[in-house]
Hints:
This protein has about 150 residues and is of the alpha+beta class. The protein has a single domain, classed as Nucleoside Triphosphate Pyrophosphohydrolase (Alpha-Beta Complex), CATH 3.90.79.10. The protein has helices at about 45-55, 80-90, 140-150; strands spanning about 5-15, 20-25, 30, 35, 65-75, 90-100, 120-125. Strands 4-1-6-5 form a four-stranded mixed sheet. A three-stranded antiparallel sheet has the order 3-2-7, with no helix packed on it. The chain starts with a strand and ends with a helix.
Amino acid sequence: MVRFRPNVAALIVKPDGALLICERWTVPGAWQFPQGGVDAGETPESALFREVREEVGLEPKHYQVIAQKAGYRYLYPEDVRQKKLKKHGFHGQEQTYYLCHLHSNSTPINVDQKGREFRAYRWIDPEEFDLDWLPSFKRDVYRQVMLDFFQVEI
Length: 154
């Protein structure tokens, strides 16, 4: 049986409509949204708050969750699947995405966090997102997320 690890991802949007993307620390040129696994005993929403705080330094008071949608799945690539199975017991991830509106008076994004996940960040128009920034196994999920939340075909 294929097992999917519960995961959350944040679509953080500024008042002007700009979308936050972050460049992975270990993979230069790979851009994604803040995201991470849901720990045992944790709700998806509390995982969202923890991941956003750990990865970009924002507290829940800095943004408002506007919408969420679950059920986005992908399998890990074959070359890493066995490693992930041993580490977590999962073949892939099932993500819940949260659309978060950043308050105009929030603190700045800070990717220089303990356990650093990202090397850089930038704000883009959702239509600027480029699937080439992602590993191929995540592209279908991102394509659907951008359509579902921003009505943008990428």
